[in-house]
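Project standup — Tuesday

K.O.: blocked on the structure for the chain from last sprint. Re-posting the sequence here as requested.
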Amino acid sequence: MASKIINMADRLRDDVDERLVALFRAEPIADNGFSERITRRIRRRLWLRRLAIPLAAAIGGAIALNPLASMVTLLIRFVRSLPFDVVATTPGWIPSLPLIGLGGTLLVAVLLGLRMIDE
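H.V.: unblocked you, prediction finished:
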């Protein structure tokens, strides 16, 4: 069953449009699979480039996770060893120091991730 919908672009063709349609309707040039091989190679390289940076970031993040946790723990021990009690003197509406450190770390990680995605 033929469609009854008429495309306005088909109705408003001029000579140039008809020549272009005829040009693209022509048979492709026989190149013994050369175009196919080049297209596959380009697509493979594009996927490698798309995956390389996120994979490197994930591996680097996994490697840096343990030292980052050690640094946060060391910072918490340092603050607790101060002569005055910084954690106990904060009002109830201010989050605890470990939570602030974790939030700051997550903020930096998200900003760096967004910057890598943008590039």
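K.O.: great, moving the ticket to review. The longest helix spans residues 34-80. The chain has four helices and no strands.
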